[in-house]
Amino acid sequence: MKRIVFPGSFDPITLGHVNLVSRALRFSDEVVVAVLDNPEKRTAFTLAERAALCEQVFADFPAVSVLSHAGLLMTLMEEEGTRLMMRGLRDGEEAAHELRLFQIYHALDSDIETLYLPATPETAHLSSSAVRAIAQAGGDISAWVPAAILETVRSHPWH
Question: How far apart are CA 85 and CA 73, in angstroms?
């Protein structure tokens, strides 16, 4: 069975993330959406809330599982018995950042492989931070967030 881990903070999950997972299912038997804490980011939703949102979004995807993890991604991958992760790329700036991450991951565990999927033209502009900013200002995020979690994200008590 080919399993691929899709790590991220998913704060909140967007239609861009869903697009990447759907595409990854074309070449893997299972996608593990790994909701992680990133100490460099101040999240709007807790780790448990973000995982619950992802579980709602992927409830009808039998080949998608959602896990939350507060430690190192490498530890989660070892626990899950997979050596393959997927990352999305929206633009060149993100590609440069992802290359640095790959080098760090490779230094930690040279058996880990990373597959990169470019965002589609329809989703390349989507980001969780943009969703948070628009939602916080009362804007319409319905074209950016999965319908299953739209009301939860809209009604979040933004700080």
Answer: 10
Calculate the average pLDDT of the chain. Answer: 93
Tokens standing for 71? Answer: 């430690």
Side chain identity, residue 56: Q
Residue 10 to residue 31: CA distance in whole angstroms: 15
**pLDDT per residue as tens digits for the range 20-67:** 999 999 999 999 999 999 888 889 999 999 999 999 999 999 999 999
Domain boundaries along the sequence of the chain: 3-126
**DSSP symbol at 61:** -
> How far is Cα 145 from Cα 143, in angstroms, rounded to an integer?
6
Q: What is the C-alpha separation between 102 and 77, in angstroms, rounded? A: 14
pTM of the model: 0.94
CATH topology of domain 3-126: Rossmann fold (3.40.50)
Q: Which residues contact 144 (CB under 8 A, 6 or more apart)?
A: 14, 15, 126, 130, 131, 134
Token pair listed for 123:
């989703």
Q: Measuring CA to CA, how many Å separate 126 from each of 15, 121, 151?
A: 8, 10, 18
CB–CB of 18/90 below 8 Å? no
